[in-house]
Design a protein that fits this description.
7-stranded parallel β-sheet; 7 helices; oxidoreductase activity; SDR family oxidoreductase; NAD(P)-bd_dom_sf; about 250 residues; oxidoreductase; SDR_fam
Length: about 250
């Protein structure tokens, strides 16, 4: 197992991406701590993991609350003995579908503020423990790429770019402590789109059409990539991105 006896925290663990990552981590032997603001969704993922023989615990948590984030990290270490992996995949409250010139500044800035604040708080809480251990992995998730005509992402791309800047800085500062910092870039995962989204099929098709392989990453593949990135198989990887976009996002 890639993550045997590791303790992993997933913020936003009840969502589509978070749940997929949590199931993959648990399948590879990790004890998974799911944190978020939707108890029903968290418990659903936890039940799926337990039914498959894995270990999962849940906690209601607002990732914008620094004290709560720090306390939860302390609780994870108290329960498991270490905090080995931390991944933030919470929702950012972004507004899409409108040109920037038609947006309210509050709507544009919300995902930027939420992403920067929560990534900072969750990474800081985990890193304080990882520095003592002199090991650990911080994972981010994004789909940032160059804007394309006809797509209006609001502040989401700006949020992704801000998180990437943080990831680079964290990697430099935490590298001497044996802590790795990586981002998974997907370019979009059709399976993660809400079922009640009005233009879901159109958006899913646009994601696939942008790829070179004419297929997008699946939720299972996202989870598998995250498990690999968090494992010792990727021990030499840090300050980098794992491109799982099927060619939609070109590496430079």
């Amino acid at each position: 197992m890639l993550l045997n006896k590791k303790n992993a925290v997933i913020y936003g663990g009840g969502g589509a991406i978070g749940g997929a990552v949590a199931r993959a981590f648990a399948r590879e032997g990790a004890r998974v701590f799911l944190a978020g603001r939707s108890p029903e969704k968290l418990e659903l993922v936890a039940r799926q993991i337990r039914a498959a023989g894995g270990l999962a615990e849940t906690a209601l948590l607002d990732a914008t609350n620094g004290r709560a984030v720090e306390q939860h990290a302390d609780d994870v270490v108290a329960a498991g003995g270490s905090l080995d992996i931390s991944m933030n995949v919470i929702q950012h409250g972004d507004v899409q579908g409108l040109p920037m010139v038609d947006m309210h500044v509050e709507d544009y800035l919300r995902p930027v503020s939420t992403a920067v604040q929560t990534v900072f708080l969750t990474a800081r809480a985990a890193a304080r423990h990882m520095m003592q251990q002199r090991s650990g992995v911080l994972l981010a998730f994004g789909g940032s790429g160059d804007p394309t005509p006809g797509n209006y992402f609001g502040g989401l791309i700006t949020a992704f770019e801000a998180v990437e800047a943080m990831r680079r800085q964290l990697a430099v500062e935490l590298g001497p402590y044996g802590i790795r910092v990586l981002t998974l870039r997907s370019g979009g995962v059709p399976e993660s789109l809400p079922e009640d989204m009005g233009d879901r099929e159109e958006i899913a098709s646009s994601i696939v059409d942008a790829t070179l392989l004419r297929r997008a990453a699946t939720l299972e593949e996202v989870g598998n990539a995250a498990a690999f990135a968090a494992s010792d198989k990727a021990a030499s990887m840090t300050a980098a991105t794992l491109n799982i976009s099927a060619g939609a996002l070109m590496d430079r």
